[in-house]
Amino acid sequence: MTHQCYPEVPRVAVGAVVIHQNKVLLVQRGKAPAKGEWAIPGGSVELGETLQQAAEREIFEETGVRIQAGELVYTFESIHQDPDGRIIFHYVILDYAARYISGTPVPNDDVLAAQWVSPLDANRLAINTTTLGLLKKIGFLS
Q1: Is 108 in contact with 58 (CB distance < 8 Å)?
Q2: Which domains occur in the chain, in start order?
Q3: Where are the alpha helices (DSSP H) in 1-142?
Q4: FRET label pair with 95: which of 5, 19, 34, 69, CA 20 to 30 Å apart?
């Protein structure tokens, strides 16, 4: 995801929830605003892309995994301020359910790691709170 610090308007971003063989595809973020945390892969929508096309491209760019984006499953905002109260990041994020097509996760772009994570393994990772909420909402985690 290309990050724009101190934006003039909110940015639209997408993610994809990819479950394959009872594991979810997660990435460890390499840049702010969630650096070091594990999350659903995704990134910014480019001009002229549909939301689903953006999700498919971003997941491939970040992990090397090919997917087919389906229905919208989660929407949230990520707003971060500096100590002076100025907005550093403001994303409106739409997460889609996605079908796995092919590929083995390999970290690319701005991620430190990419892997399939079982519900048991999820408890051992520093998964960000928004991703935890999403995984609980869809029934992947209890």
Answers
A1: no
A2: 11-136 (3.90.79.10)
A3: 51-63, 119-122, 129-137
A4: 5
CA distance 37 to 24: 15
Distance, in Å, from the CA atom of 128 to the CA atom of 80, rounded to the nearest integer, reads: 14
Which residue pairs, CB below 8 angstroms and at least 24 apart, start in 9-12?
A: 9/90, 10/77, 10/90, 10/91, 10/92, 11/44, 11/90, 11/91, 11/92, 12/44, 12/45, 12/51, 12/91, 12/92, 12/94
Q: Residue 45: pLDDT band by 50, 70, 90 thresholds?
A: very high
Quote the tokens at residue 60. 């491939």
State the residue for tokens 């090919």.
Answer: 66
Would the pLDDT of 55 be above 50?
yes
Sequential DSSP letters for 53-67: HHHHHHHHHHHS-EE
Residue with tokens 């796995």: 100
pLDDT in tens, 66-117: 999 999 999 999 999 999 999 999 999 999 999 999 999 999 988 999 999 9
